[in-house]
Amino acid sequence: MGIGDKLKNVAEEAKGKMKEKAGDATNNEDLQAEGQFEESKADLKQAAEKAKDAFDNR
Fold first, then answer.
1. CA 16 to centroid of chain Cα atoms
2. pLDDT given at position 34
3. How far is CA 4 from CA 8, 10, 12, 33, 46, in A?
4. For residues 56 and 23, what is the distance between their CA atoms, to the nearest angstrom?
5. CA distance 47 to 31
6. How far is CA 32 from CA 8, 44, 46, in A?
7. Are the CB atoms for 13 and 43 separated by under 8 Å?
8. Fewer C-beta within 10 Å: the chain N or C terminus?
């Protein structure tokens, strides 16, 4: 994947962290869960990219 995709995933992870913290601050469990989900989704995408990069560099 290109650098644009990597930056998009980092931005998505940061957005998830912000939502999670906002949910913590306001006791909004739905917002907190949504943030955790977005962060996890970005982490999975990043892991897939790393695996793909490792395979491509063989």
1. 6
2. 97
3. 6, 10, 12, 27, 12
4. 39
5. 24
6. 21, 19, 21
7. yes
8. C
